[in-house]
Amino acid sequence: MAFLRVAVTIILALTSFAVDAPSARAATGFLYDCDMAETDRGRGWISPKIALVFTADGKVTVIDAITLHFSKTPVIATVLRDNAHRLIVKWTVPRARADSGRSFSHFDYRASIAKASGRIDLTAIPRSYDVGLQGRGVCHKRTK
Question: When comparing pLDDT for 66 and 111, which is higher?
Answer without folding.
Answer: 111
